From TrEMBL:
GO terms for biological process: translation. Binds directly to 16S ribosomal RNA. InterPro entries: Ribosomal_bS20, Ribosomal_bS20_sf. SUPFAM superfamilies: Ribosomal protein S20. It comes from the Bacteria. Keywords: Ribonucleoprotein, Ribosomal protein, RNA-binding, rRNA-binding. It holds the Pfam family Ribosomal_S20p. GO terms for cellular component: ribonucleoprotein complex; ribosome. The gene is rpS20. It comes from Candidatus Portiera aleyrodidarum. GO terms for molecular function: rRNA binding; structural constituent of ribosome. This is Small ribosomal subunit protein bS20.
Length: 79
């Protein structure tokens, strides 16, 4: 039982990392800084893939998040 609680807490904190990286990318998009945006996106992409491999988030969710962030980057920084 204690093992389940510990695992749940670890997974919860790892899921919060996903939200943090999404916020970082969105903030960089809002500032319209292309290099920062790309750097943050690559870091986030790596984290999403790692967490998907460990089954913290599903592979489809990881792909969906990456796709949506990439579309936002292209749309906002197209000028």
């Amino acid at each position: 039982m204690d093992n389940n609680r510990a695992r749940r807490q670890q997974n919860s904190s790892k899921r919060s990392i996903v939200r943090t990286y999404i916020k970082r990318v969105l903030k960089a998009i809002k500032l319209k800084k292309f290099k920062l945006c790309i750097e943050e996106f690559y870091k986030a992409q790596s984290v999403f893939d790692i967490l998907a491999d460990k089954n913290i988030i599903s592979k489809r969710k990881s792909a969906r998040i990456k796709s949506r962030l990439n579309l936002k980057i292209k749309k906002e920084l197209q000028c």
